[in-house]
Each structure stands twice: as C-alpha cells, then as structure tokens.
Amino acid sequence: MKSSRAESGAGQGAQAGQVVLLGCGFVADLYMRSLAAMPEITVAGVWDQDADRLRAFCDFWGLPARASLADLLDRAPGALVLNLTNPHAHFDTSRACLQAGRHVYSEKPLAMTLEQAKELHALAGENGLMLASAPCSALGEAAQTLGHALRTGIAGTPRAIYAELDDGFIPQAAYRKWLSDSGAPWPYEDEFRTGCTMEHAGYYLTWLISWFGPVRTVVAASAETIPDKEGTGPFAPDLSVAMLFFDKGPVTRLTCSITAPHDHRIRIVGDKGVLSCAAAWDNAAKVTFARRLTLRRRLMEHPFPRTLRLPQPTHPKVKRWGAAAMNFMLGPAEVLEALHQGRPCRMSNDFALHLTEVTLAIQNAGETSGAQSMTTTCTAMEPMPWAS
Prior knowledge:
Layout: E1 18-22, H1 26-35, E2 42-47, H2 51-61, H3 69-75, E3 80-83, H4 90-99, E4 104-106, H5 114-126, E5 131-133, H6 141-151, E6 158-166, H7 188-194, H8 196-200, H9 202-212, E7 215-223, E8 239-246, E9 251-257, E10 266-270, E11 273-277, E12 287-295, E13 298-301, E14 306-308, H10 330-341, H11 349-363, E15 371-373
Parallel strand pairs: 1-2, 1-3, 3-4, 4-5, 6-9
Antiparallel strand pairs: 6-10, 7-8, 7-15, 8-9, 10-11, 11-12, 12-13, 12-14
Helix pairs in contact: 4-5, 5-11, 9-11
C-alpha cells in the first residue's frame, strides 16, 4: 500500500521536521515504513544516482525526485539529510553534505575507516553541524527498558554481559528473493563486502555505550569462515568475537556472524539475577528479569522470569517486516527535536565517532591484533523522558 509523503514547506528546514533522502535502495523503504508512523516528519525530496531506482521508489511512495545531489540540497536548504547510500559511499556523500552546511544522519557505518570517520567528525565540528549515525534502536523501548532496569538496580550490580548478533548461515539463504516494498533487491554483494560486524554490531554497541559510556579497550578476533560467497570480493570477516572493557561498565562479550544459528539475545548478569532480551531488532521486545535462587542446593535462575515494562506510551511502533520490527526514524526524529529545542542530541557526533571506532576495531581484529585501546570517547546517553 502506497503512502504519500509529498514535499511540504521545503526550505522551512529541520525545525519543521523535514528530511531529504540521499539514496533509495533497500534500506530506504524501511525508513519510509517508519515515517508512516511519524506524520510530523515530511520528506522534501529524494535523489539516487540510479535513475531507474529513483523513479521506482518515488513513484511507489509518492515522493518528489531530484535531479542531483546539489538539486536535492538546494530545494530544501534546511532539511536534515538522511544518508542512505551504500556503505562505501558514506564518506564522500556525507562530506559533500557537511561541506554544504547540512546536518547529516548517516546509515551505518559512518565511514569505512577511522581516518575517514574522524575527518567527518572534525568537519561537522568546525561547521557547528550535527553528524549522527544509525542504528538508533538504543532509543527504542526494549533498550530503554533495560537501561531503566540497570539504573534502578533490579539485578544488582552488573558483572558481565553476553550479547549475540548471529544471523544464521546467510550465504545459503534465499536472499535473491528479498525485495523491499518498492522492489529494491537486498544488496548481498555489498553486505558481504561490508561485513556483518560493520552492519550489525551497532545494534548492541549503541545500547551498551548509551548505558555505560565509552569503551576503553577492545580485545577481539575476526575471520572469514565462509570463503565462497556469491559476488565479487574481497569479502569482510563473517564472524567476530569481542571482549569490551568499559570505563564505567561490566565486561561484555559481543559476537557477530552470518554463520552461526540465529541468536539475537542479550543477557546482563548481575548480583541478584539476569536481565534478558531476545530480539535486538524489535523495539517492543520482551525484557525479563530472572532472580537467582538456590533450590535443594542447586544454584539457578528463576524458571519463570518477571517481565519488565515501562509506562506507556513510549514511542511510535512499526509492524514487523522480515526479521525486524524497528522504527528507523527514531534517530532522525531525535536529531530534529534536538535542533528544534536547542539542546544536545542524544545521538551526538562523539557518539557516532566512538561507535565507528569500536566497530572497526572488532571488524578488523583478525587473528593477532590483541588488545586495542580506543582513541575516541563520548558520554553515556540521557534516557528518553518516558524511561526516566
């Protein structure tokens, strides 16, 4: 079903809740699905270098196509740019937008190298611009519920965290049949070249950094376990395992793969029991607490964990599509609101840069990198008002 998002008041800018879309591939349809739940945000224009893809996307969603990047920016001079291009194009396109004086919300990753990410961060800072990076699920209900449980000490002091982002043996999946609403194919070659760590680690890294602040040290290993993927390589590692040491948080083990069976659990082990969530890609996923007990000399977690809930309403939800039920517009909405209110953005420039450094450290760890000290930092994220 089509949802018209025609331009409205182009030029009124970010304070009017206005965005432009740079790139209209597979992920752009997920943003449009999320926009349907947030009618206060309007789309002032779309551009993609693929004319056929641009036409199909704009016809499907009822959006105004633009002739070039310059035309896209000129037609809506104050709108927030959503950079939805392919990962290897993020640096060049975000840099062009920042040089044009535009606030940018980039799909992950911010850049493919730390040097590029630092250049974007510096450019944004020099020009007083916001530079935020997906994913934004740290702003979602499940992450905020866990954050509230940590702050209120439901599980006691957290001692260790296990986080899994395994997606199954994807090279054998029917991914050629995966099409977006407007007909864009899942970009399997780009996904395999970029790597599952760059694509997915952020879904839990953002949660962790939002709760505990910066990672001090990364000790990781990564490898390509499935060498004969479809497409043109070289391909990135398809399995990574990292130990994360925070300045002010528990030691965390994070696993990413497109090899192991699907598992998106996060378990926070505290003095009193275990906080859990089984679905990183569902904003409304159930969050539970299983208190620890001794039964007939056996130490165990309670077999019937308690479900934790925040007072409703929290934020706009979207229906499940494929493997996810995430509102992709929570991040852009936070940037727009911060601009409108003149306050610091929860998804800050420093947050985006630090997320990128930690992700790259895990992705590029290989077999022998050992302990890596992070060179960037950020602050923990303020909870959402409905999770305070």
